[in-house]
């Protein structure tokens, strides 16, 4: 089976550990590269031979936040087509709308428990190569309280 690559930019160590643990439990063929802010994520992308299938960006990070990182990525021909999921603990409608307007695939409110995170990540991982947009829309339509799409 072909290895898949994901990237996560999040400055919260506990959130990062829980995210990576869930990914590893769902699919051991996924490599999850982590960065503590948007600047470090862009550095990793610049030196990467193989681009990730998806990127998760925390909204609030020091040095370069998720919004600025998303803006830079969408202007770069090499990165602009990589699906990005914005993440935050906030569920303010303004931020959700902002994510979609700025080019993110969806907005993901960070769950505060492992099972809810793993459930959402399982759907994302299973559909990472095809059908991700539809899978995310189905999650939202089915009442998943953490996923917001168009």
SSE topology:
Layout: E1 4-9, H1 13-26, E2 30-35, H2 38-47, E3 54-58, H3 66-75, E4 84-88, H4 93-101, E5 106-109, H5 114-126, H6 132-141, E6 147-148
Parallel strand pairs: 1-2, 1-3, 3-4, 4-5
Antiparallel strand pairs: 5-6
Helix pairs in contact: 1-5, 2-3, 5-6
N-to-C SSE string, H for helix and E for strand: EHEHEHEHEHHE
In CATH terms, the superfamily is Response regulator
The CATH class, by name, is: Alpha Beta
End-to-end separation? 32 Å
**Domain tally:** 1
Structural class designation = alpha/beta
Low-pLDDT runs of 5+ residues are none
Number of helices in the DSSP assignment? 6
- CATH-scheme architecture: 3-Layer(aba) Sandwich
Largest sheet: 6 strands, mixed
Q: Mean pLDDT, rounded to whole units?
A: 88
Strand content: 15-25%
User: Per the principal axes of the C-alpha atoms, what is the gross shape?
Assistant: globular
- The radius of gyration computed from the alpha-carbon positions, rounded to a whole number of angstroms, is 14 Å
Beta strands, count: 6
Detailed description of the structure:
The protein is α/β, with parallel strands linked by helices and 150 residues long. The protein has a single domain, classed as 3-Layer(aba) Sandwich (Rossmann fold), CATH 3.40.50.2300. Helices cover 44% and strands 19% of the residues. α1 (13-26) links the parallel β1 (4-9) and β2 (30-35). The longest helix has 14 residues, at 13-26. The radius of gyration is 14 Å and the shape is globular. The mean pLDDT is 88.
